[in-house]
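User: Predict the structure for this protein chain, please.
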Amino acid sequence: MLLTKTRKEGLKDEVSKNANLLIRAGFINKEMAGVYSYLPLGLRVLNKISNIVREEMNKIGGQEVFLTVLQDKEPWVKTGRWSDEVLDVWFKTKLKNGTEVGLAGTHEEPLVTIMKNHIRSYKDLPVSIYQIQTKFRNETRAKAGIMRGREFLMKDMYSFSRDEKEHEVFYEKAKGAYNQIFKRLGLGVSTYFTYATGGTFSKYSHEYQTLASNGEDTIYCCDKCMVAVNKELISELKECPSCGNKKLVERKAVEVGNIFKLGLKFSEPLNLTYINENGEKKFVYMGCYGFGPSRTMGTITEILADEKGLVWPTNIAPFKVHIVELISENKKVKETAEKLYETLAKNSVEVLYDDRDVRAGEKFNDSDLIGIPLRIVVSDKGLEKGEFEVKQRIDGKVLSIKEKEIFDFVNKYN
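Assistant: Here is the predicted structure, written as structure tokens:
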């Protein structure tokens, strides 16, 4: 029995489309502005997004860790980022002994401190470390649902190289990994590699911006090569930095990832060094690679949902199949539905089974709202014909599939 229940209406104090839909569908629960709990359906989606990211980071050599949220302030003081005037989104508190600590919104300082115990020689480089972990940022405004929270899930990866040349090799691998992530998430055709300000050891940083009508950012897109320029740079970059195309199209977008050089910004103040081939002490050259699983979940909700509810790509849907049993006095309906459920589950197909004693219309409305890719209806009418009614959520197309063909149909559906 599924823990959560659907709602006909969203919350009056929730203005974001993504949060209201996810709350109505029973995926998340709002605790306060910018803070949401993930219920069973929502957690399944969030975990699937995270696992896609994890797989692509592992492919390029990333090693996963899990760092602490509570932060010792000393490393942050050394880099100058403990001050609220420098980093204005800190959540800070005190231990009972009076020691001041912070709740991490990012992890450059603590990871560099750890890596001082593991990097000593050029033979220890290059190396890349990542985590998928809860972050805290004291945002002034938190009105975009899970797209901009005060507590959120983030993948942050950091690369450690001997020099900029070695760093660039990994940077290109990371770009390829990010492209693959967005392709697997169903966002490949709507996500642009975007030039932005904020580079530390380079002129630009790079963002991944997904087109969304209510996006917070404005980008100028080159549709020839899927590259864009953030509005803040448009006076400087009036043509595509990749192909030179001058016909850039203005669009709204949401930043779902970013990658950029850190250079020696953290290794110098925290004294992260290595001994090179000539016995010389050198500072480690760093890069940073961010991605927001929860933010991306909200973005997918915003751009793919329709007037009936959520629409999930198969790769990240909480379940692939939603079996809807229409209540009948004919015992064979229930027997057929249960057998179908058992067969699919036994063959590793993720199935949600609705056997509630409620009207068909309520079940169909809930199914559309939840947004599972395939809905299979088991009914008297279908059994008479020896077939199932199957609805594809993405386009609303309704098919009649013979009972003996249903498993092959589901198995091949992507």
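The two ends are 26 Å apart (CA to CA).
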